[in-house]
Structures are given as structure tokens and as C-alpha cells.
Prior knowledge:
By secondary structure, this protein is an all-alpha fold. The chain is built from 14 helices and no strands.
Amino acid sequence: xxxxxxxxxxxxxxxxxxxxxxxxxxxxxxxxxxxxxxxxxxxxxxxxxxxxxxxxxxxxxxxxxxxxxxxxxxxxxxxxxxxxxxxxxxxxxxxxxxxxxxxxxxxxxxxxxxxxxxxxxxxxxxxxxxxxxxxxxxxxxxxxxxxxxxxxxxxxxxxxxxxxxxxxxxxxxxxxxxxxxxxxxxxxxxxxxxxxxxxxxxxxxxxxxxxxxxxxxxxxxxxxxxxxxxxxxxxxxxxxxxxxxxxxxxxxxxxxxxxxxxxxxxxxxxxxxxxxxxxxxxxxxxxxxxxxxxxxxxxxxxxxxxxxxxxx
Length: 312
């Protein structure tokens, strides 16, 4: 091993704990998952696309102000197009598909199950683009899917919403999968503030006509205002900022594996926030998904050296 490679590894290991990928990944999962119970509460006070336009519009304006005040460079050419595509796929299509499916009658369990297989879809896209997937990662993906299925097994009954709802969920799955890969490939050199400003404002513009068709329906209640505030500050600002950072540091397939934890963590949050029951099967699914994420995100020594070299 060369002295330069050893120095790289020492530099990476010397990071404070709060800067490590493990801590940032855990914080990302927790913050991201709070959006589900809060979104469920907020949707009782507003139409789905009206809620999304308010969320993305406010977040986009905040990031715009932050970028202008700090005078950060704005992406141009292919980088700007990449940020716009992430806004289309990861924001507009993902959340529009999920919210639209639920509005059409899809159960929350079915939506979680379909979106929960995003790591598999992302891995296949990345594989087609030349990003290798280790056998251990595939094992982790299989366990992750099993954990997700355990968590939502008791929520799959009832009205699934028909073909239109499944089509909407497929659009949401495609959106988050493609958006994650695009973010990894084109977002590594884009400033977080300017990049997320473009992403959120593009999503707002795309969903605005649908919100207008809804009549921008909301009851302007305290619950609606507080819900929007949480979704903007905690999810759109903090959550997506962490995702942005994680994708800069790691392979798209490894970051995507964290999404296996979303249904289990959401089940726990729903238990405390909205009173949904937490069954033994959900707890088992939590453990299985967590082990799957461990395998799916585990980095080999050679991979760590390459990551350190990319970081330097």
C-alpha cells in the first residue's frame, strides 16, 4: 500500500462522527421518514398537489435566497440540465406519483412496498451505466425487500385504487430511481444551494398546473401551516441536503439501499405520531431491512480506498 493511499484512509477515518456517512445516513432516514406522518396529517387539510406546490415552492425560494446571499456559482450547461432533471424525476414524478396514487385509492402499504423496491431499480439502472454491484449488495437488497414486505404485509388489503393508481406508483418508483442516478452522475460538482433551488423550482413549475386544477384547495388551518413548515424545513431543506451530500460521497446503489429502512422507520413514527399499531411482524421487518442495509452499504477495503481517492 502506498503512503499516499494510507494517508487518504487516515484522513477519511479522522472525520468527526457527525460527519461520517453512517451518522449522516441515519439522520437522513429519520428526517425523511418524518415526512410521511406529517404529510398524512397535512393532506387532511389540503389537496395533494396543492400541498406539493406549497412545499417545493417555499423550499425553492429559500434555497434561491441562500444561493444569492452566498453568491455561489450556478450550474450551467449539462450540470444545470442535470439539476432540472432531478427536479423532474426525484421531486415532481416521485411525490406526484405517490400522492396521486393515494388520492386514487391506493393503500399506504402498497405505496410503501412499491417505492420501497427503489434500491433494486436504482441498482439495475446503475449497472446498465457501468456502476458495479457486489454480490454482498445483492444479498442486502433481497433482505431489504423482505423487510419492507414484512412491514407492510398487514397494510396490503383493501382497495388498491385500480390500474390508474398502480400506474401512478410506477411513475413514482421510476422517478425516484432515475432521479437518484442522475443526481449522482451530474450533481457531484453542483453547489448544494443552487442545485436544490433549481430542483425545487422546476418541480414547482411542473406541478403548478395540477394544483391550479385542484383550485389550490386548503383550509388555511394551523395544522396545514405547521405541516407545510415541517415538510419544508425538515424534509425539503434538511432531508434533501443530506441526500445531496450522501450521493456525493457514495455510489448511488449504496445510498439507495437506505430506502429499505424507510417503511420500518415510518411504521415506528406512525405508531407514536398518528397511533397506527406496531406489530411483531413490523418489528421483524425492521430488523431484516436494517441488516439488508448493512450488507447493501458495506464498503470493502478496496472500495474505501477508491472512495478516499475520489474524495481527495
